[in-house]
Amino acid sequence: MRRREFIAGLGGAAAWPVVARAQQASMPVVGFVHIGPADVIAEFVAAFRKGLNEVGYVEGKNVTVEYHRVAGGHDQLQAVIADLVHRQVDVIVTPGGQIHALTAKAATATIPIIFNIGEDPVQFGLVASLARPGGNATGINSFGREVVTKRLRLLNDLVPKAARIGVLVNPTNTATAEPTIRDVREAATTIGLQVQILNAATIDEIDAAFATLARERPDALYVAPDSFFTSRREQFATLTARDRIPAAYSQREFVLAGGLMSYGTDIPDMFHQMGVYTGKVLKGAKPADLPVLQATKFQLVINLKTANAIGLAVPPSLLALADEVIE
Known about the structure:
Elements: E1 29-34, H1 38-54, E2 64-69, H2 74-86, E3 91-94, H3 98-107, E4 113-117, E5 137-141, H4 144-158, E6 164-169, H5 174-191, E7 194-199, H6 203-216, E8 220-223, H7 227-231, H8 233-243, E9 247-249, H9 252-256, E10 261-265, H10 267-282, E11 293-294, E12 298-303, H11 304-309, H12 316-321, E13 324-326
Parallel strand pairs: 1-2, 1-3, 3-4, 4-5, 5-11, 6-7, 6-8, 8-9, 9-10, 12-13
Antiparallel strand pairs: 10-12
Helix pairs in contact: 1-10, 2-3, 4-5, 6-8
């Protein structure tokens, strides 16, 4: 059930096929490049369309949106972006994070790019400044580092006696794995936690990681954001329940599947804002003049049924903070 909007001053999805609608010569074309599970992305695409609609654009009526799922690594991503640039689409939307945004930026200096990035876009050269991007790219900063720290603190609040935390990353997803390891280690030092890094990039490696967890018994598990992990969320729910290990995730979808807790950016809201910015650019606004937005909506979701099943008492103060509690 919904509790309240949890707003902090800090700071996506499996297979879905490419959808290319019949294009009319006068209809602008948006190239939407992402990765993730089809059953998850549907909600996010709906939020993006809502943002477009608010600015006066209706898909199939006065705008064409091509949805491109990239699951084959950086070479495939480069090929998809290169094709969009070659065809001179009107806007490229990259909600998939830093690698997608940087690949688009490297491919074109003229086609507008609307991005989402968890790191500082100035640091990576995507924009000149947050207030005045000054180039062909703008979008949303979803505060990856700050969210990592907050999620780890919430996990510690949930398991206050924890001394050692397992951190599971996908080593093939360097754009997420490396910052997660860095940020978790920094945050853990301030909290007084020890960190054990585990790697998994396949179904069997997830099983192997949990075998290590069962043998070495850390007090809780922190799962890094990763589209492959999202596609395996039922596996995570089964394994954490079997081993009775408290786990924290980045997306609500894990908790709906039976995971214990998630904290992260309100992803539908992020997609909604990207839709609004895309519509503004289609109407003639220049990315150079559209300030990089800063995420302001964050979701804490707790599965009380799962907590009870693994014998974990959730503090009332944490339940009071939750945006959603599944009972």
